[in-house]
Design brief:
mainly alpha, elongated, single chain
């Protein structure tokens, strides 16, 4: 990231940002499941998506993410 300071494109910075967002999503999903033992994983991670990543995704990505989430859980 330090090497990118004077550059126009900041690949490492963006990568780190999305890594942190992804980890926040995973953490929130797991915390929801631990807080409510009767909650399904799909419900917990759908809620976590709504408060973490959804705001950064466009219409197309939201749909794809929803399908992938449903298929994986």
């Amino acid at each position: 990231m330090k090497n990118e300071q004077g550059e126009k494109k900041r690949t490492a910075t963006e990568g780190l940002l999305w890594l942190l967002r992804g980890l926040d999503f995973t953490c929130q999903g797991m915390q929801r499941v631990q807080a409510d033992k009767s909650m399904e994983l799909s419900e917990a991670f759908t809620e976590a998506y709504g408060v973490t990543l959804k705001q950064y995704h466009n219409f197309l990505v939201k749909g794809i993410f929803s399908v992938c989430l449903s298929a994986s859980l």
